[in-house]
UniProtKB/TrEMBL annotation, chains A, B:
Species, as recorded: Haladaptatus paucihalophilus DX253
PANTHER family reported for this sequence: HTH-TYPE TRANSCRIPTIONAL REGULATOR BETI (PTHR30055:SF234), HTH-TYPE TRANSCRIPTIONAL REGULATOR RUTR (PTHR30055)
DNA-binding region: 26-45
Molecular-function annotations in GO: DNA-binding transcription factor activity; transcription cis-regulatory region binding
Name of the protein: Transcriptional regulator, TetR family
Residue ranges constituting the HTH tetR-type domain according to the UniProt record: 3-63
Alphabetically ordered keywords of this record: DNA-binding, Repressor, Transcription, Transcription regulation
Amino acid sequence: MDTETTDEIITATGRALQKYGYANLTMQRIAEESSITTAAIHYHFDTKEDLLNAFLDDLIKRFEAQLACEARDPRERLASFLDAVYTPSETGDDDFPVGLMELKAQAPYHNRVRERFLELDDMMQSVVASIVRDGVDAEHFEEANPGEVARLVTTLSNGGHTRTVALGENPARTRQLVERVLELRLGWTPNSEVDA
Amino acid sequence: MDTETTDEIITATGRALQKYGYANLTMQRIAEESSITTAAIHYHFDTKEDLLNAFLDDLIKRFEAQLACEARDPRERLASFLDAVYTPSETGDDDFPVGLMELKAQAPYHNRVRERFLELDDMMQSVVASIVRDGVDAEHFEEANPGEVARLVTTLSNGGHTRTVALGENPARTRQLVERVLELRLGWTPNSEVDA
């Protein structure tokens, strides 16, 4: 399969989903958001469902890559996690908060969609828990329950996403809240200097 | 307007929204969920939008009534707030987590829907902030920033709602998390005895 073409189709899917909503998403509209014909899209993806699953797989893969932080210091890894979750991409090309929210609402009806959100959640919680564990071990952080901090950070990120979509709130508000939580739980915030 | 009829239409709207989703919600399907004819529904509500606005108004009104706690003790008021947010109603009749999530995803496109979610959010934050303020004043709670605790509790409730819908998670998991947050911030959880 031609990677460049499928990449373009997947990006166009995100744009069309954000623009028209899940219910009004058609292969035709996806084609209009790209330089690819409807026939070519059908050649690569049998159904809209296949395409949405590929879109979610791609989203998870890209998020995973963003989280694959080179740094070994847990404080740097935590700062980079927050950047990945709360900083909009520079191109804005892969920010589909409304589309993503609509897909979440589809999860109860589509098993494969639910599985992907469970996978994403599991990944987020694992990353945070491992950072907290390492930071506590290295005495960069105060004693804390890694699983509980991970669940707290992840649930706040879920809530922040809702607030962006439903209330039109700036995600920075939730980031601020999370940083304060981390300050109280770990005795450290990403704002503070690593070498301080 | 006949209150009993409009109440029945509004309840049927919630059921149909939960069952068919926003995109597939029709006056016909709402009629099928009630004992009322499509013609009668059209007589009471001009458009699907009017009906959804009435549905949200009703939801806010009922939630407000649930929060209108008789108790004066801030500890009882906090426990009753958590019950209102996290305990499913006994009949299950007014639990529409998926439908509500879909409406949140519609907020960017419908100003009146967004206004209602902003109103609901404002109410939740005000209630929690006022409980925290009173509890700190009465020395039932440790010193805390009422606005910050209110935002934290509300954002976690937003996140818990998403987790129920997207992941199929039991809301009790988020409640547990919120109670732990309150324990650390206020030195008190709703599990503890008020007279202890």
